[in-house]
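Thread: Newbie trying to understand structure tokens

Hi all, I'm a second-year student working on a class project, and my supervisor (Dr. K.) asked me to get a predicted structure for one chain before our next meeting. I've only ever worked with sequences, so writing a 3D structure as a token string is new to me. If someone could post the tokens and maybe explain what I'm looking at, I'd be very grateful. Here's the chain:
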Amino acid sequence: QSGFGDKFKKSEGAWDCETCLVQNKAEDTKCVACMASKPGTSHSMTVVLLVHLSFSWHWAVLISSVSI
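---
Reply by user tm_fold:
Sure, no problem. This is what the structure looks like when written as tokens:
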């Protein structure tokens, strides 16, 4: 007999996203919520670019996650 709590147990191979903590299916290679890579599938790094906006005296910071 299964109880109410059994409805929330992880299925075989399910994984939790390290970025947003959403639970994903075993066959998902990227998080269904934030598209972060499944741990162990590829390496990713965060790239921070400081860009001078030529039309003004302002600077912009661009942050991106890149898979390598």
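A couple of things are worth pointing out once you decode it. The chain is about 0% helix and 30% strand. The first strand starts at residue 15 and ends at 16. Feel free to ask follow-ups in this thread.
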